[in-house]
Specification:
7 helices; single chain; mainly alpha
Length: 201
């Protein structure tokens, strides 16, 4: 590509190296995490519902077991849909990243290694979340349609294992922002000697 065109693009980027003020990827990441964790948690509560039923009765909460499974299913489905946009935004924003090559993260990775692992991890997690959604759909609509307990224990165990992978993957993302300053708007403005609070006005 013509170097003049690249410089024109670079001139239109904000302090965080993006053509918009606030990075999109970190916000979508938290939506993905929240939906997935809520989905697994409500399915877990639904599985343990017979043990908790006296507590709900004591608190006069009109809870039904299938309601917990409904929340689990719809949150898992929403997580799959949102994660598609999360990964897409992540790849777009990482292509515009210019981290310092001299810094080493707390895990001993340089910037490029951290970005590569984070990118590969994002695709892996997207695949796992979609796989979990398909698995959850088969349980809901085919395999366990007539049963009171809508999910298998193996599904829940897999969900908690994926949460641990999310924790590791999220740590890489946090290192990109905190240690390498990738698309960290406040960090970039402070380095330029500007007030990051001016964005809020």
């Amino acid at each position: 590509m013509n170097s003049e065109l690249i410089e024109q693009l670079r001139a239109s980027l904000g302090a965080n190296g993006l053509p918009y003020n606030i990075p999109i990827h970190p916000n979508l990441v938290h939506l993905t995490l929240g939906l997935f964790i809520i989905g697994i948690t409500f399915d877990f509560v639904g599985v343990l519902f017979p043990l908790q039923k006296p507590i709900f009765k004591f608190l006069a909460l009109p809870a039904e077991r299938e309601n917990f499974f409904d929340v689990g299913w719809y949150n898992m489905l929403a997580s799959s849909i949102i994660t598609c946009f999360t990964v897409a935004a992540g790849f777009y924003e990482i292509m515009l990243a210019e981290p310092s090559p001299d810094i080493t993260s707390a895990w001993g990775f340089k910037a490029m290694e951290t970005m590569l692992w984070h990118g590969v991890g994002g695709v892996l997690l997207f695949s796992l979340i979609v796989g979990m959604t398909v698995w959850r759909g088969f349980q809901r609509f085919l395999w366990r349609k007539q049963e009171d307990r809508q999910v298998q224990w193996s599904y829940l165990v897999a969900g908690f294992a994926i949460m641990f992978i999310m924790y590791l993957h999220g740590t890489l993302g946090a290192q990109l922002a905190a240690e390498f300053g990738v698309h960290n708007t406040a960090d970039s403005l402070l380095r330029l000697g500007e007030n990051p609070n001016m964005l809020l006005k």
